[in-house]
Amino acid sequence: MMRSLLAMLCDVESMKTTVLLCLLLLVAPLQAEERANLNPEAVGFSSARLSKVSEFVDREILAGRLAGAVTMIARHGEIVHFESAGRYGLDDDRPLDTDALFRIFSMTKPITTVAAMILYEEGAFHLGEPVTKYLPALEGMSLLVDGQLVAPNNTMTIEQLMTHTAGLTNGWHVEHPVERAYRDAALQNSPDLDAFIKTLGTLPLRFEPGTRYHYSVATDVLGALVERLSGQTLEQFFHERIFEPLGMRDTYFNVPAEKTDRLARDHLWDAKSQQVVPMPDGLIPPPSGFTLFSGGGGLISTAKDYWRFCEMLRRGGHLEGVRILGPKTVQAMTMARLTPEVRDNGATEYPASHLYPGQSYGLGFGVITDPAQSQVISSQGEYSWGGIANTKFWIDPEEDLVVILMTQVIGAPYSDRLRFDLKVATYQALSTLGASSP
């Protein structure tokens, strides 16, 4: 009897030990992730000087230029700064949390390009192939020249979709008849990407394909290509091939109802009153109910999730044992691909072109080619992009950095200064230079 009781007790203790070990295994990654914030000096940052990042954000909030923001800085894969400041919105006084959700708009574009390059690695297409091989509804697009529609000399290629040189536009510059045609077509109201492509195929090209960098709906077309080649919606493909493997559990086209309270409020710069105001009703769609999955600007995410995506790229296409892309593919994507002529043909549109001085474009990313001309501290080969609501990220291979800014203000005349100030605050805090760990 005593032997049986001892055996039962041993079994109970063994079970307790097993449960404890399981809990430790579950908690350990979280604890390790939290510890990554504790010692900036170990990765070549000054803790004291990093405080200038917080001061920069606080200054913008105090001046009324931001309602709130989340900032994140990581080096060699270690998070050295991760803070939220301000509130969820001018009409929502809750203190902003670091896990707040933000509309990232054009920061969707690099994710869509990664999705396409996954298929490229699987042999689904070649970069120089015509887009119409897979999306024949675009076959008849003409070029407007001196008021006449003529056939273009060049065929739009898949690489040109990724570099914004496909000859497409977006309807923003309504002084031109092609721009007005895009605006009037209301592509954003299409029920899905098939309908989007069908309507786009009835519109003219803005420029001869391959001759000019021009920011456009090209990445939405690329998303349609992903759908056509994969047989999945872009939402499904993103979830199965990128978000789930990378542990990006808060990135969506359609935000679940139980998470919508974490969505930061949208804001607009009001030119008349010269101040930031809450976004008027009806200008921004709700965070769910979408069937048109915009590869150019439809995602909602968090700073932490987007860091995981960037960290995968910084590591050459893998994260925590999961490979999304090969390192040579990431290298190819982050090379400047515009010839000087093609890049400079669109340079007169700055800042509407979205290319800064000293910056070219790769496959889905802006790429710094001449830091001395970029008007702010930068590194050769740094690649980045931003969203229209002043979200921003950059990956700096020279310094092995990932930096993310999340906020929500559309139309602010100080957007460039905001991003440049964050760069200055980040780089002045470095105590050692170079990509290798100190």
Provide a descriptive summary of the structure in words.
α2 (47-62) packs antiparallel against α12 (415-427) and α3 packs parallel to α7. β1 (68-75) and β2 form a beta hairpin. Strands 3-2-1-16-15-14-13-12 form an eight-stranded antiparallel beta sheet, sandwiched between helices. A two-stranded antiparallel ribbon has the order 4-9. The chain is globular and about 60 Å long. The chain contains twelve helices and 16 strands. The model is unreliable at 1-36 (pLDDT under 50). 34% of the residues lie in helices and 15% in strands. The chain is an alpha+beta fold and 438 residues long. The chain folds into two domains: 40-107 and 250-427, DD-peptidase/beta-lactamase superfamily (Beta-lactamase); 116-230, Methane Monooxygenase Hydroxylase, Chain G, domain 1. It has helices at 2-35, 47-62, 108-121, 158-163, 177-185, 193-200, 218-230, 234-246, 303-314, 327-333, 340-345, 415-427, and strands spanning 68-75, 78-89, 92-95, 102-103, 143-145, 148-150, 267-270, 275-278, 300-301, 318-319, 322-323, 359-361, 366-368, 383-386, 392-396, 401-406.
Chain-wise SSE layout:
Layout: H1 2-35, H2 47-62, E1 68-75, E2 78-89, E3 92-95, E4 102-103, H3 108-121, E5 143-145, E6 148-150, H4 158-163, H5 177-185, H6 193-200, H7 218-230, H8 234-246, E7 267-270, E8 275-278, E9 300-301, H9 303-314, E10 318-319, E11 322-323, H10 327-333, H11 340-345, E12 359-361, E13 366-368, E14 383-386, E15 392-396, E16 401-406, H12 415-427
Antiparallel strand pairs: 1-2, 1-16, 2-3, 4-9, 5-6, 7-8, 10-11, 12-13, 13-14, 14-15, 15-16
